Amino acid sequence: MSRWLLALRIETAKALASRVVFATAVLTVAGIAAIVISFRAVAASGDPQVLAKLGEAGAAPGWPGMLATAMQVAAPAFLLGITVLHAWLVGREFADGTVVALYGLSVGRGQVAVAKFVLAVGASAVMGVMLAVALLAGGLLLGYGAPSGADAAVLGRIAVLAPFSALVASPVALAATLGRGMLAGIATGFVLLASAQVLVVLGVGGWFPLAVPALWALSPDAVALPAVALALAIGVAVSAITAVAWRRLQLNR
Amino acid sequence: MTGIEAARLGRTFAGGAGVHDIDMRVDAGSLHALIGLNGAGKSTLMRLLLGMLAPQRGSVRIAGHDPRRAEAELGPLVGHLIEYPLAYGELTARANLELGARLHGVPAAEVRTTVARVLDELDLERFSDVRARRLSLGNRQRLGLASALQHDPRVIVLDEPSNALDPAGVVLLREALVRRARDGAAVLVSSHHLDEVARIADVITVINGGRIIGSLEPRQSELEHAFFELVHADDRARAEVAA
């Protein structure tokens, strides 16, 4: 088995045993699904205040309204859950003191860092599929019938939104590395989320990597392909920088 | 073969603390004790030897490699326990050891027997299915030692290995280290006092204020007295230089 695969296998075993990854995924998906389905149930009653909050797209009946609401809720909520994943996977080694034991091994620390990144993206992909399935079940329960091809495509983009967001959220792992703990990563995640929201509201978020996944999921045609490529490239590059930081890591503080 | 070789090794932190001009050699087949009071620089020196810190001056070779440059080569060759063991709280003692064995390059087919052997050697079998976070401090220390020793490394570096161990644990540790040194391993252990492990060393090096200030003959009488004589003489010499 290659060292890369061994690192991934060991990181996966640690993550499965700790239940943090599982709990984060389930709580994030359950939270998003509960908000969306409850909004739809209340919107069905015709409450004008709720309809005003949902906006024109969200207030639409059936699948289009539900998926528009889901997009609004899922983008920031996924980013919060993914922040926890990245920050915990990296920061726990410092918080638990186990980083000391990651020297002098057959698997390099850079490989460990890459395995953590791949694991976070993989867990996020599962999270995305879980939400898409939960929304599908919710829509069927609310009596919307089978989704049309266009609605199914939106469900598919919601599933992809999570791993896409995990790829571009790699600065969280870098911050947890440089800050030697989870809190630095979590704080960075919040700053990135707030920045994305502000830039999108100002209408200049189209090229901000953290905003690109949500804008793409909302309307793929409205986002330039180079912006998507740039967001992915920056996410991977920051992950590579994190691996180098782990490779050169000194326990000097 | 030389297990560890440090030449003119130094690293100074802000404020002046650190280690300075360390020349040290731990040969294969020898058990070497590094003794110094709290803050003498033992842990900093061990971190430099293992590549956890980069030296500002001098050089280090461990098992023939520069620890800051070596990638996976050191895995099978080195075992260490510096402050925290390779033990994740959510995994059982056995799972932690299996993980440690793989990370030290033990082939998958040999992991089970390797772990069973060390569980028996350090009397951890009855705790093998207990999660590490539920183990007592002493048993967590045994687990960390087991993880450091199970792959029979050629170089062993242990910082205060008898910490939290009960007398039975100290005896098991002493026997495990003597056995490995006899089989050719280079063993370096640190302690802030002349404990049971330090007393069985072939060589005792004394460190004070970040510098090696001398050595003690392990079989000599009044060992403790000789240790304090060395340390106090060094402290007086420093005070005179400072004045």
TrEMBL record, chain A:
The entry's keywords: Membrane, Transmembrane, Transmembrane helix
Entry superkingdom: Bacteria
Native source organism of the sequence: Homoserinibacter gongjuensis
Membrane-crossing residue ranges in chain numbering: 20-43, 63-85, 117-142, 154-178, 190-210, 222-246
Signal peptide: none
Name by which UniProt lists this protein: ABC transporter permease
Pfam families listed in its UniProt record: ABC2_membrane_4
Automatic annotation (TrEMBL), chain B:
InterPro entries from the UniProt entry: AAA+_ATPase, ABC_transporter-like_ATP-bd, ABC_transporter-like_CS, P-loop_NTPase
UniProt key word ATP-binding: yes
Keyword tRNA-binding set for record: no
Database matches in Pfam families: ABC_tran
Residue ranges of domain ABC transporter in the record: 4-234
Gene3D superfamilies in the record: P-loop containing nucleotide triphosphate hydrolases (3.40.50.300)
Key words of the record: ATP-binding, Nucleotide-binding, Transport
Family: Belongs to the ABC transporter superfamily.
Protein name, UniProt field: ABC transporter domain-containing protein
Gene source species: Homoserinibacter gongjuensis
